[in-house]
Amino acid sequence: MRPKILLVDDRDDNLMSMESILSLDEYQFIKANSGREALKILLHEFDFALILMDVNMPNLNGLETAALIYEREKLRQIPIIFITAINYGEEYIFKAYRSGAVDYIFKPINPDLLRAKVSVYIDLYRKNQMLLAQEQKLLAINKTLELEIRERKTSEEKISELNRQLLENVSHLESVNKDMDFFIYMASHDLQEPVRKLRMMMDRFCLKYQDLLDQEGHNYLGRISEVAQRMQLLIKDILSLTRISEDENPFEETNLNNMISDILTDFQQIIQEKKVDVVVEKLPILKVNPVLFRLMFENLLSNALKFSKEKGEHIIKVFSSLSLIENGIDKNGSQNGYHRLFVEDNGIGFDQQYASQIFEMFRRLHGTAEYKGTGIGLALCKRIAEKHQGFISARSKENEGTLFTISVPVYLSAPSENSALAR
Q1: Which residues contact 363 (CB under 8 A, 6 or more apart)?
Q2: How many whole angstroms separate alpha carbon 175 and alpha carbon 169?
Q3: Per-residue pLDDT reduced to its tens digit, 294-328
Q4: C-alpha dist (Å) from residue 360 to 296, 379, 382
Q5: What is the tally of structural domains in the chain?
């Protein structure tokens, strides 16, 4: 917008003269023929950049008008330049400055002088307006920041309260889980004794009365014995599952080759019966919980033996690889990548669509009559892998075999053996 200048003079020719001199610049002029008229204008408009006012006016002269103007707070920032045809001396000029004027020009007006002085005050006005605008902007920004701070503080308080509630819920859930695990452990432990006695009594019954039973009696007896055996196995697996969360054995450097060798020794009879060729390549030394890791490999190797095909060559392979990610960071944020441990067989396999479901509790893809088991073994493996900050996955194809992959972070391994891997 063009800066507004208030011209005050009791003579129209003087007003026209000032307007003519300043018309070369882009100003907006408001004119008043007396001090009173100027005051009336200033009652409604106060956004003037400058006031040019004659001193010698009837009724209300320029000095008196200036004094009344500066009584109002909103008008005190408007500079006033007095214009007069009479030089009253320094005392009168001092009086004019004391009334609030910023400058003094004598008539006849020097056009260049008037334009120069007006230009200076208009420039100051513009800079002042820019500062005011900047101040308003900063005030608005400050208000926005205050609002954001209040909102953030409110959000932080809500988050803090939610976190507190979450911690309480977590603590409660941990307590419930501990109670549940203890209950399951005690229930399973207490169930072992009657099942053991049941099997013992069944054995005695068979030894003493087997010659007195007909074929149907032997069938019923065999079914009862099979159910008792399955119940004992189920209790054993449930106990193993509860021990995973309670197991506080420290992680220690474990030679996986020695572990696998011990497990295969335990499975030697079934390996020979099924004529399975087990190939174990050099495995790394990892810092793990040896009790849980042994349990995991026992389940995986047991599954590989159980689900071997009836005909053809039977092969089980155990091997490993090292998966280091570029720059030491993988997509999951792990620091040094993973050791991959593989258990592969060429057994009956399964449809790949069930690859994630087989790790669920009590999930079985085959009936108990065909393949014995409780459906807990792979759920155990998943829990053990997770306890080692890793994971387990399966890739399979029907009638072609299954590959289980256990991934364990490298930083859990023994530093001296990180590179001692073979494929």
Answers
A1: 357, 375, 378, 379
A2: 10
A3: 888 988 898 888 888 777 788 899 999 887 654 44
A4: 15, 6, 9
A5: 2
